[in-house]
Backbone:
């Protein structure tokens, strides 16, 4: 796989995924190296001239008024990392931790941080060698950046703490030595340059966004499968409906579902069997549209943030200036990540309602209760819907915005914070739940299609998805452990096989 070249300006979401999940390696562009050197020269000049510069010749936060002599600079920076390593909770997954490293390196590549080139390149060497810091998931306020978790990211660079290496948890000093990477001693400004930014919330949120974009596609596929199972009325997806209400997501969803159902002999036209479907089928274009448009809004913000400077102070080499400001504040991402969680929770909400229509004999247009062959002795899909309802209800709690909260810190010097990292983590949890609900819907739709004996009437795309599911889950003739089936379909979603099956038949679906 080709190397990803970081220059601070054009890192894409696909490239981030390539490094974090697919093993792509990274390097700095030549221009980035020169910019890093130029900003470092300015920091060295500030130190030599004993200028008063926050975080360079002063303490941090409320200690900004405390001057630090040059001979204590290294101790100051190491103490910063150790004292700020206050994260708690489970470690972030390795892909998110690697994303944090990529994003921080890309921030430094812009040349406004005053860090040394060799310090920046240490991050890249660790990425390429597969040394991943163990970073607790909790402890960030999302202003002054992600101070606590980013401090844990820095520990292995100093030979402190633990990391993942070659599939094991290792002492960082041992892993670095085995990989042939020298640990470093931080000097003036460097500790602050490594931890004052939004890279934790952005890594969590960006990878959740990537998964959410795929969830959006799977939601359209799941809706199409339920349309096949319930003889849904296709007229609601007519292009003319989208044309008179100009939301991009509405046109995309209508087109996706029409394309997925092209050639189906299971769907109906209005008036043939029913005049109208319930909202969970008829309003799929509108509901999914709102979610798609929200997801695309979040992508715009993520693209900006991945290539932004979120330091404090920011070094301007051309002007030989250091400006202390607030680019570390996570508010520009906190609201989008809350929005992302809300959008993904809505995809689960309407999916669970479609599932309910299939299992409820009062709503399922002739399907047996709970999709059972022999109801009574068998419960069939009864508790599948319970589980989906539980996940949807949990999502409603998680969808409460984190960004509306703030707790002052650092003796009220930092008196408004974003909670953006909590917003991103909540969105990630919602994405997990939503994916499971969609797996349940697709599983139920395949069962309903078999009960209707209509698999030979499926559209080309829905037949491809049905066949993919039936490779791993057989028709449910009598009760068995349902979690096994749910996990099997969920794995098809995670591995991309549901989307691949549909797109192999009709081409790329829109997000």
Residues:
């Amino acid at each position: 796989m080709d190397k990803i070249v970081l220059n601070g300006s054009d890192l894409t979401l696909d490239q981030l995924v390539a490094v974090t999940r697919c093993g792509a390696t990274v390097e700095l562009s030549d221009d980035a190296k020169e910019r890093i050197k130029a900003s470092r020269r300015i920091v060295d000049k500030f130190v030599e001239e004993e200028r008063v510069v926050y975080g360079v010749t002063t303490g941090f936060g409320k200690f900004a008024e405390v001057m630090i002599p040059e001979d204590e600079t290294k101790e100051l920076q190491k103490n910063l990392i150790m004292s700020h390593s206050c994260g708690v909770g489970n470690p972030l997954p390795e892909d998110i931790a690697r994303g944090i490293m990529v994003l921080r390196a890309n921030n430094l590549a812009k040349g406004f941080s005053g860090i040394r080139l060799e310090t920046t390149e240490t991050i890249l060497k660790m990425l390429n060698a597969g040394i991943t810091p163990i970073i607790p998931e909790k402890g960030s306020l999302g202003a002054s950046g992600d101070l606590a978790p980013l401090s844990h990211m820095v520990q292995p660079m100093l030979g402190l703490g633990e990391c993942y290496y070659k599939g094991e948890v290792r002492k960082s000093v041992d892993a670095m030595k085995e990989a042939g990477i020298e640990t470093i001693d931080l000097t003036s400004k460097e500790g602050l340059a490594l931890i004052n930014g939004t890279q934790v919330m952005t890594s969590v949120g960006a990878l959740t966004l990537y998964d959410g974009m795929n969830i959006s596609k799977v939601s359209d596929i799941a809706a199409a499968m339920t349309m096949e199972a319930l003889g849904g009325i296709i007229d609601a997806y007519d292009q003319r409906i989208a044309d008179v209400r100009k939301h991009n997501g509405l046109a995309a969803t209508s087109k996706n579902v029409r394309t997925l159902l092209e050639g189906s002999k299971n769907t109906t036209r209005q008036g043939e069997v029913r005049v109208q479907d319930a909202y969970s089928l008829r309003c799929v274009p509108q509901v999914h549209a709102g979610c798609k448009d929200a997801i695309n809004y979040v992508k715009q913000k993520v693209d900006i943030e991945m290539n932004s400077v979120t330091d404090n102070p920011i070094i301007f080499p051309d002007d030989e200036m250091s400006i202390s400001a607030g680019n570390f504040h996570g508010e520009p991402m906190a609201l989008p990540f809350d929005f992302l969680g809300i959008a993904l929770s809505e995809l689960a909400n309407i999916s669970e309602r479609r599932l309910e229509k299939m299992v409820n004999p009062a709503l399922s247009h002739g399907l047996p209760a709970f999709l059972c062959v022999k109801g009574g002795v068998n419960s069939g899909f009864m508790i599948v819907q319970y589980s989906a309802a539980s996940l949807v209800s949990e999502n409603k709690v998680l969808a409460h915005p984190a960004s509306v909260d703030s707790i002052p810190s650092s003796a009220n010097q930092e008196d408004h914070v974003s909670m953006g990292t909590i917003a991103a983590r909540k969105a990630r949890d919602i994405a997990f739940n939503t994916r499971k609900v969609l797996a349940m819907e697709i599983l139920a739709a395949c069962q309903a299609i078999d009960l209707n004996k209509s698999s030979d009437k499926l559209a080309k795309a829905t037949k491809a998805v049905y066949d993919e599911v039936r490779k791993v889950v057989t028709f449910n003739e009598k009760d068995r452990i349902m979690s096994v089936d749910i996990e099997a379909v969920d794995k098809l979603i995670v591995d991309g096989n549901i989307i691949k099956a549909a797109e192999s038949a009709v081409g790329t679906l829109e997000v």
Q: What stands out?
A: The longest strand covers residues 88-91. Residues 133 and 163 are 4 Å apart (CA to CA). The chain has two domains: 1-195, 203-504. Strands lie at 4-6, 26-28, 88-91, 132-133, 136-138, 162-165, 168-171, 314-316, 321-323.
